[in-house]
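Example noted here:
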Amino acid sequence: MTSNTLRTIAENPDFGIMMPDGTRLSARTWMPDNATDAPVPAILEFLPYRKRDGTTARDCLTHPYFARRGYACIRVDMRGNGDSEGLMEDEYSPQELADAVETIKWLAAQPWCSGTVGMMGISWGGFNALQVAALQPDALKAIITLCSTVDRYADDIHYKGGCLLNENLGWSGTMWSYSSRAPDPALRPDDWREIWLKRLENEPFLAATWLDHQHRDAYWKHGSVCEDYSKIKAATLAIGGWGDAYKNAPPALIENLTAPVKAIIGPWVHKYPHFAIPEPRIGFLQEALRWWDRWLKGIETGVEDDPLYRPYLMESVPPKSWYTERAGSWLAIAEKPSDLPRETWHFGENSLQESPAAFRKTIQSPQTCGAHSGEYCAIWLGPELPDDQRSDDAMSLVFTSEPVTEKRDIVGAPQVTLTLSSNTAQGQIALRLLDIQPNGASARITYGVLNLSHRHSHAEPSAMTPNSPEEVTLDLDHIAYRLPKGHRLGVAVSTAYWPLIWPSPEASKLTLTEGSLSLPLRASGDTDEWTFETPEADEPWQIETIREGSNIRKTVTDWATGIVTLEIIDDFGKVKDGDHGLINGSIAREWWSIHPDDPLSAKGRSHWSDELEREGITLRTETTSEMTSDATHFHLTARLEAFENGDLIFEKDVQRSILRDNL
């Protein structure tokens, strides 16, 4: 049984929740209009992404759906963002988490609330759902976390394998823009400008903050629930997508939580599964309702009997940068991923084979290797996925098997162990697991990267001894992928992976002498599959389109200098809300440049333009940021400009040089 009876609901666009220090947080709420007479559980989503315009499209599809089925849905703008008061310090700050705990406590005490609360969110909201659950507020009984992480250092948008992700600068540019926007003047007619100016004055440039912590120190341990999984007592439904950056958290949670837990991973990019791409989408709201009904209302919905792990097994298809649909099937797996069988492949002279073999191979990749990696976190409009890998393969060492005589269903995290030496003290390595198709096309199955100074520890890195062989091990990202009969398995090894990671200060040459691949496999006789309901949703956001969105991704080579630049322009369009009339529009631009022979030529740059309009009020922010490096330091600059009715009313510049520390 689930909550099938639809109820009439009431909506409030600016529901105030007071924090103990007097700061007013603004929430948009949907709840049954008789909730005070018949109290209901509350579902909280706690975000910086602006409920009034930023997440409205997905909020309209999702929160009213639950409210009509007997829940109070509370979408809160975090402190210092959207229509809330206060100032934001950082992502997942102690203040943010304390505000969320206080909000849960406050919700549970309201006369329209039954006293039980759930927390749900994707990305930032998925992160803080886990982090708040670890703080164990009494009323929080269940969470649904999507596209999140358990380890803020090893598996977020800052560092991966101890390498600096370029997304560290890219996402900082996004937040530099998002959090500098004004509240809606219609909701704060008397003080919106005062709030905005104070927000602008205190806006943090987070790329510098994150770059101040290049090791896995206390800063990153805060909010990393992997530090103590036992702290999470709330029932946890974890969801991810193979096209997303955050594919490792659902397996980690089902491996380690003692609380009730289930995991689902689809073929999707960074979106909710009821409207995600590529299809097939699933009835996510129905799945979520079963979860909420069981853990917030005590209704027997059978969720405990669902398989522990439901990954989408992707079929081999021709590689390309965007799919609207991905062939495959849903698996129903009762075991933890670590309990699935594995097989071992050994590296040989350009080969993957059954038995160990002696070989000696060297690789020094051009700095442009990695151009076909796709976006680290595919989130916007596309094309963002890794396409045919043959150009990157040509800049790498590639070890390939003979055509396999039986299909292999790869389910889990492949692991590669290599014996290697570097001619420099600081270096990096990228490994790609490949499906090499009969026509020669090369599809990336999964991948991993490693800063060689972090080969033993992310907390205490140590430089390589040049030309001294060492054994290193890399865990590649989790995946569920079918390698068909007749295809070849490949492992590509490179010393650069731009523009996904920032290069080492020197172009290193690696020498490999031993290697093995541990491949996780679904048992060949396992035929258990799963079927989800088709997606349901509430009524879509009603808008008037003023400017259509568009996206551009192109690579340009300057034949005079040799510099290669990737240009990304995402115009998200401009729309007018059909209900309250707020107009908003934004354009994001990024440029990533490097010379194939010079790691110190690397340069990243972003520029966001944002517009908010009401009758008689036109607001705009222009935010830019840039990073370069030399052999010893990273150099960051950023600028924020705010305009009111075309007049520049605020400007701020940031400049930082930060010492490179084994990076």
